[in-house]
Write a structure and sequence with these properties.
- The protein is mainly beta.
- It has a single domain (5-220), classed as SOS response associated peptidase-like (hypothetical protein yedk fold).
- The chain is 10% helix and 34% strand.
- The protein contains three helices and 14 strands.
- A hairpin with a 2-residue loop joins strand 7 and strand 8 (107-114).
- The chain starts with a strand and ends in a 9-residue tail after the last strand.
Length: 229
């Protein structure tokens, strides 16, 4: 599950763009980004602003009736909305961190999740709806079951890509299977999590101060490097 995220560390985003060979203007720092808002979508060679809530090319109208701002990795080949994009319209949504909630003391407590670079690349799918002028570019974030270490926060998590996986995911000439290791429920790198103000539950609250830690951080360890022989 991924329903909110922030773009705050622009040096980290610029490093990602450089790695992917994408020449795109950096967006302004943004906080508490929610579904249906415009977000930066990276596709081979360029970055564009896209609506975060997929509108399939065959849809009769733009609608939020069905929650397709996230796409379950396990059913990408079964869903009519995701089948074609998974085959040939894969992209990446960069974020500095994302937010998840868990129950603590009878209340939902938001936590910010980030990595060392403060730039996370999340697997995405996109589509273009021709019923608007200009045509509407929209996208959805791919999620998978949570890695064991992440389960105390949520039963699902975004598909977080390593830099090398980013190149393969965006290569739409290449077929990817739903059981590909890219989509597996594992932590591929270390994550840091910290609690923040409960007011971030209101998506209209965009104040950066709300995302300052309100408690000590928790570190989740990714794969341990094997010693060299």
């Amino acid at each position: 599950m991924c329903g909110r995220f922030n773009i705050t560390n622009l040096p980290g985003l610029q490093d990602l763009l450089n790695y992917l060979g994408i020449d795109a203007p950096l967006p302004e720092p943004r906080y508490n980004i929610a579904p249906t808002e415009e977000i930066l979508l990276l596709r081979p060679g360029h970055g564009d602003m896209a609506r975060w809530w997929l509108v399939p090319s065959w849809a009769k109208e733009v609608s939020s009736k069905y929650s397709i701002f996230n796409a379950r990795a396990e059913t990408l080949t079964k869903s009519p909305a995701f089948r074609v994009p998974f085959r040939q319209q894969r992209g990446i949504v960069p974020m500095s961190n994302f937010i998840e909630w868990r129950m603590e003391g009878g209340q939902k407590q938001p936590w910010v999740i980030t990595n060392q670079e403060q730039c996370i690349a999340v697997a995405a799918l996109w589509d273009v709806w021709e019923g608007a002028n200009p045509p509407l570019l929209s996208c959805t974030l791919v999620t998978t079951e949570a890695a064991d270490a992440f389960r105390p926060w949520h039963k699902r998590m975004p598909v977080l890509l390593t830099r090398e996986e980013c190149l393969r995911w965006m290569d739409n000439e290449q077929t990817i299977a739903v059981d590909d290791t890219m989509l597996a429920p594992v932590l591929k790198f270390d994550l840091e999590l910290f609690p923040v103000n409960r007011a971030v539950g209101n998506s209209t609250r965009k104040d950066p101060v709300l995302f300052e830690p309100t408690g000590p951080p928790v570190k989740l360890q990714g794969p341990v490097a094997k010693p060299k022989a």
